[in-house]
Structures
1.
Amino acid sequence: MREAIIRLNNKKDDAELCIKQNEKITFKMLSKEELVKLFNDFFIKDQHEKANIKLFSENTIGAGIDYAVIKQPEHMQYVTYNNHSYKINFPNAIYIVRYDNKIVKSIQCYCYKKYKGGDTELYEYAMPNMLTGNAMCMGSADKRIVDGDIEAALNKIIATPYSHGNFDGIKGFSTTVSYFEYLEDNPFPYKLLRKLNRKLRDVKV
């Protein structure tokens, strides 16, 4: 059996490891790197021996302990607004999906023209149902993640009927109906995207 006692202080960058020798307790300073290694030694290795390997979807281009970055190229998609369904040209998009306890907590959304890894230029997400800070309004959508499939949970939320009748995520359009009617009959107008002057590597999670 292995044990470790670590003391953390929100005013210090370093942690302290508790050491007991001959009934005397002392503390050893640990850097961030040493602390991460300690956690690896105590937890991650043991879990790796017991858990099945985790596979990401083809479109997952990044991931952290509580988020996944999903890239979806342009495609045809059915969307619904006001009980009417439209088959539209859906734009290139990148989503940062944050989750906790198998529930999607928030989604940051961006459009892109050409994917260049971290150097990908980001544009405003050119779809309705958006909040400030490039955050998607998920409303009453089913946010559950089933069998660890984060992209499936994302797609389920995207397919939820739109509720915002007006938006300003792209130049030249202001109503959801006129926009969806246009996208039914025309290629996606990438020249109308609103540039954010930000690259993918600049996004904070």
2.
Amino acid sequence: MSALAAVLFDMDGTLVDTEVLWWRTTEEIADGLGHRLTDADAPEVVGRAVEDTAAHLVRVSGGGDPYEVAAALTESFFRGVEAGAPMRPGAQRLLTELEAQGVPFALVSASPRVVVDSVVGGSLAHVPFAFTLSADDTTRTKPHPDPYRAAAERLGLAPRACVAVEDSPDGAASAEAAGCAVLVVPSLLVVPASPPRTFAESLEDVTVARLRRCLTAVACPPDRPRAQAGRPRMSRMPSA
């Protein structure tokens, strides 16, 4: 079995339950621009950087300044996160197991630094991350490979020795492009299958041994169906 050098965790929707909050934040800002957010917008909202979502809202609404919209999204989301961002089921147990086995882990997020610091100072204050990376810490953020490459470099490791844990198509694409093995625990969007990706229904199903197996897996485990590509999980989107 391959050695597991480190685990790189996404934040929103993976370790903390913030994706619904982000959707509702975007919904409110979209309403102010005269656009009603629907499932069709999901690929441009879930797992995307603030600037990407802002550019989408400006494009579909036909109005607004992308910098001002991005600032409004960040401020509103930050207020929501400050009110509390609960951990996802199974997250605490998995982090405790990694710590007990001496496997380092870091946080690699597409959220702005102000949001990452708020969550890490709140819900995740007790978690001994090796470090945290935000969207502000690399020139390009997810779906580009830069964040995961930077995280592996900070650990002094090759990306192929790391497993990234993600919940979104953009996050999985970022980790895969960087060369990491990817464990996908989908939240609001279906994530396409590919050889470097394995899938779990919940972090409650994930152990350190399973993370190690991700390094050599080339397909989804036989007891897990492959995710279907390309379409949002309509039933999982939050209601207005």
